Amino acid sequence: MARGAALSEMKILIVVGARPNFMKTAPLIRAIQERNASGKSPHVRHLLVHTGQHYGELMSDRFFEDLQLPKPDIHLGVGSATHGVQTAAILRAFEETLTREWPDVVVVVGDVNSTVACALATAKLPARPDRPRPLIAHVEAGLRSFDREMPEEINRIVTDHLADLLFVTEKSGLANLRKEGVPAKKVFFVGNTMIDSLLASQGQADKSQVLEELGLRAKSTSNGNHDTVRPYALLTLHRPSNVDQADAFESVLKGLSDHARKFPIVFPVHPRTRKKIGELGLEKYFHRDASKNGRGIILTDPLGYLDFLCLMKNASLVLTDSGGIQEETTCLGVPCVTIRENTERPVTVKGGTNTLAGTTAGGIRQAIARQASGKRRGRIPEKWDGKAAQRIVPILIAEVQKSAARAKS
Ligand code: UD1
After folding, report:
1. Do 90 and 117 meet the contact criterion of CB atoms below 8 Å apart?
2. Stated pTM of the model
3. Angle between helices 19-37 and 388-408 in degrees, nearest 10
4. 69-80 burial: b if 16+ Cβ within 10 Å, else e
5. Which has the minimum average pLDDT: 114-118, 214-218, 231-235, 245-249?
6. 54: which of 17, 118, 185, 384 lies 20 to 30 Å off by Cα?
7. From CA 388, how far away is CA 190, in angstroms rounded?
8. H or E element: which one contains 177?
């Protein structure tokens, strides 16, 4: 409906593209559905758009099942390509979707290419005489690594400066946006929807059989003994800076080697990393079978959300170059070593369970030793309480209503 008329219904277009987007949007859709069920006006029509940046059973479909996400209403089918080509393909396809659907607000999450492409398409949409441009809402705004070599940093900065509504997960985000001159009235400190998903999914994750499948937990016995989980570490690596060049990748693997001699390190491999292991001839560093000798770096296919959450919860240590995993481990109280020079999520280091290792073999060894020397429980950051999406949805509605009133006057 036209935004100028009294709002009995509003339309939200929610964008997902890559794996970490799915857990950030599932709670928003649930919060909208709950609000609609309460019968309050306006009714919120939501359409889920999947750009297709990630695709297939392992990188996409399984997450829809695990998170009980509805099937996408619109699939852009863009797939993999260089950054320029991928971003351009999403921009082009999403502009067509926008022109056809003309929502009141477009919600983008995180910092992937789909996020910036869809924000840019929306920002450049020429307003129609009867319809103002849709608002752009960015969930997970304000995070900064201050490292412009990271494609995600470019995506964050551009998206934040295009957005009309910026939803912030941690206080560093408020300070960053203030310094960059983003008006305070656009910025809302709401907490973390990725943590909403984590808290809502823990019970389901506890039912996962992944520990048994990997030989890390003895199967239940009938005499009532508690199952024991063998100490293990969990590893993820996919950043181009860590896996694209042989030198960089090998120095990370050397940094892990002492730990791998003593414990199993479970490594669900991202497709880009899998490809690089082959291309760079690094297979000798890995095993494929966990039960064989119980140590070393054990490769598995990428895992679904619930299996991965189960592995994170039960790990003695998590080693990663991901963004979201730093937050999830802080929330779970599991020690985390981040294999990067910087983090855009400083709250996980200052108050949480995370430590920055850098990317040299020595730095990684020292960080692992630091984490092993004492149990850092850490604090749960402010507003990471499972209610972020419930805070966001009423703000979206109020802001669309304000915008409708402005268009009318
Ligand atoms: C993207 C995000 C990154 C995020 C990560 C999570 C950007 C710039 N990067 O990185 O921030 O942490 O997702 O996984 O958006 N591929 C497949 N199947 C897929 C997807 C990718 O095989 O479903 C392979 C392709 O060879 C592709 C490569 O992985 O070229 C990289 O994929 P891409 O989506 O470009 O970036 P990611 O490394 O996944």
Report:
1. yes
2. 0.95
3. 70
4. beebebebebee
5. 214-218
6. 384
7. 5
8. helix 171-179
Q: How many CB atoms lie within 10 A of CB 94?
A: 28
H/E run at residue 299: strand 296-300
d(CA 42, CA 329): 37
Q: Is 50 a catalytic residue?
A: no
DSSP 327-393: HHHHHHT--EEE-SS--S-THHHHTSSEEE--SSHHHHHHHHHHHHHS-----PPTT-SS-HHHHHH
Mean pLDDT of 225-239: 89
Write down the pLDDT at residue 5: 52
pLDDT for res 3:
45
| Nearest atom, ligand 1, residue 151 CA | 8
Nearest-angstrom CA–CA distance, 347 and 253: 27
Q: How far is the CA of 90 from the centre of ligand 1 (A)?
A: 14
Nearest-atom index, ligand 1, CA of 115 = 15
Phi, psi of 288 (to 5 degrees): -110, -10
